[in-house]
Amino acid sequence: MNKSEEMFDIYDEKMNWLGQAPRSEVHAKGLWHATFQCWIVSLESENPALLLQLRHPDKDLFPNLLDISCAGHLAAGETVQDGAREMKEELGLSVDFNELVPCGLFAEEDLMSDHLIDREFCHVFIYRCDQSLDKYVLQADEVTGLFKVSAAGLERLVHGEIGELKAEGYRTGGNGQLEETSLLVSLNDLVPHPAAYYDLVFQTLRKHALFV
């Protein structure tokens, strides 16, 4: 472990706290740890849209894939409430934790290789923000793009009802400036999450009349 490596709280499969371990060990051994995840829903247009961030190519997990609007590991000693800092760090949004709509806790396992196992207790939230995409301030070493997709379309995509979905937004160009662009997104372009994870998000959106 190098001195600057992040430390995480680790848990057993029933979320009993076991201690702390460095990030590299947590992912190498598949130790359970906690993350903060927030989906931003925009009602700027007539149809509800969800925001997807494009992960930086240097990320150790799922580089260059589209993912949750804002997400991050909780460092050792941090509470779920502390996770709201990710909104400011990654997207430039000053958000009070009490403004977030909780979806609940989702335990997720990704067995990517014999040497990389990601087991997360995901604390999942929703935040409504109707500002245009060009108003977000992206964390350059974490996020290289931000895209908007139809919420209804994403639900159909993750359930296999359609094969691809149009995403519109911005990505970082060669000069470091954000450039407007659009993509056709398939499941292979998304960080893999089970359909049950997405269902948790969509059920909460419907419950709070943010999606029909």
UniProtKB/TrEMBL annotation:
PROSITE patterns: NUDIX. SUPFAM superfamilies: Nudix (SSF55811). InterPro entries: NUDIX_hydrolase-like_dom_sf (IPR015797), NUDIX_hydrolase_dom (IPR000086). It comes from the Bacteria. CDD domains: NUDIX_Hydrolase. Residues 31-171 form the Nudix hydrolase domain. This is NUDIX domain-containing protein. It comes from Paenibacillus chondroitinus.
